[in-house]
Automatic annotation (TrEMBL):
Belongs to the ROK (NagC/XylR) family. It comes from the Bacteria. The lineage of its organism: Bacteria, Bacillati, Actinomycetota, Actinomycetes, Mycobacteriales. It comes from Nocardia amikacinitolerans. GO terms for molecular function: kinase activity. This is Glucokinase. InterPro entries: ATPase_NBD (IPR043129), ROK (IPR000600), ROK_cs (IPR049874). Keywords: Kinase, Transferase.
Length: 297
């Protein structure tokens, strides 16, 4: 039996083979192309299948999504922003396969619950902080989905006082303030000359004033929305993955400072925010787990 997992992120597409133990092992990865995204996904899937009959496919995609319809409308993939029928396309590619689909935050939460930092707790919030900001909610040991499949999408919680425009059409979303591209844009508007979140983090570590300010701004915003989400959900653990989350002390220290200022109510006194244990494999692992575990509806 061949079981595939597919992770479609804002900047990369990865595919893996799911083992009998439920763990996914990556076998292919490419950058998201500016056009021809489905053709690129199709090629990766066929290469991973290697001519064998595919029985199950688990898909995690950046969103928003319409999970019941199998449609993804990712804000950060322009070609698909108006909607792409991803599940029907995969079903046409592998006619005999069962296809299960979720937003990437749900997959992240599922992976951290079964193989990562949330193994020991039944209630947690998982987040990805990268080109976008997303998340998934674990309640009573189950991963919540919501009626459209977008439960836990913390990237569109509002940062107090922010009026930054967001790609979703709103203003003040934490994704518009604290994602990698948003932080890079803010720094460049103030004279910093780099182009990537990796460069921004390195310059902040080296003491660049603008880079440090950009990461401090992002960290405070993340801490504020995490405090709000933790109070709403009554969780004591938040797991953060994603490339920009690996920016080190210049991001994590202000995040913790903001938690100290805002997460003050008694039931949040044991709130812990920790890095993902699965790194950039988390969404792919969670997509594989969709083939074995059904999130709560």
């Amino acid at each position: 039996m061949t079981v595939l997992a597919l992770d479609i992120g804002a900047t990369k597409i990865a595919v893996g083979l799911v083992g009998a133990d439920g763990m996914t092992h990556e076998v292919g990865r490419i950058q998201v192309p500016p056009t021809g995204v489905w053709e690129a996904v199709r090629g990766l899937l066929l290469a991973a299948a290697n001519g064998s009959e595919v029985d199950l496919v688990g898909i995690g995609s950046c969103g928003p999504v319409d999970a019941p319809a199998g449609i993804t409308t990712p804000l950060n993939i322009p070609e698909w922003r108006d909607g792409f029928a991803l599940v029907p396309a995969v079903q046409e590619l592998f006619p005999g396969a069962t296809v299960r689909f979720a937003i990437d935050g749900v997959c992240l939460a599922l992976a951290e619950r079964h193989f990562g930092a949330a193994r020991e707790t039944p209630d947690a919030l998982a987040m990805t902080v990268s080109s976008g900001i997303g998340g998934g909610v674990i309640v009573g040991g189950m991963v919540a989905v919501g009626h459209t499949g977008n439960a836990g999408h913390i990237g569109h919680m509002i940062v107090p006082g922010s009026t930054d425009p967001c790609a979703c059409g709103g203003v003040g979303c934490v994704e518009a303030v604290a994602s990698g591209p948003s932080s890079v844009r803010w720094a460049r508007e103030r004279g910093w000359h780099g182009t990537t979140g990796i460069e921004l983090a390195a310059d902040a570590e080296a003491g660049d004033r603008v880079a440090k300010a950009a990461l401090r701004r992002a960290g405070i915003a993340l801490g504020q929305v995490i405090s709000s989400a933790a109070a709403l959900l009554d969780v004591d653990l938040v797991v953060i993955g994603g490339g920009f989350a690996q920016s080190g002390e210049p991001l994590w220290r202000p995040l913790q400072e903001a938690l100290g200022a805002h997460a003050r109510i008694d039931f949040l006194r044991d709130l812990h925010v920790v890095p993902s244990e699965l790194g950039d494999q988390a969404t792919l692992v969670g997509a594989g787990l969709l083939t074995a575990f059904a999130p709560a509806s």
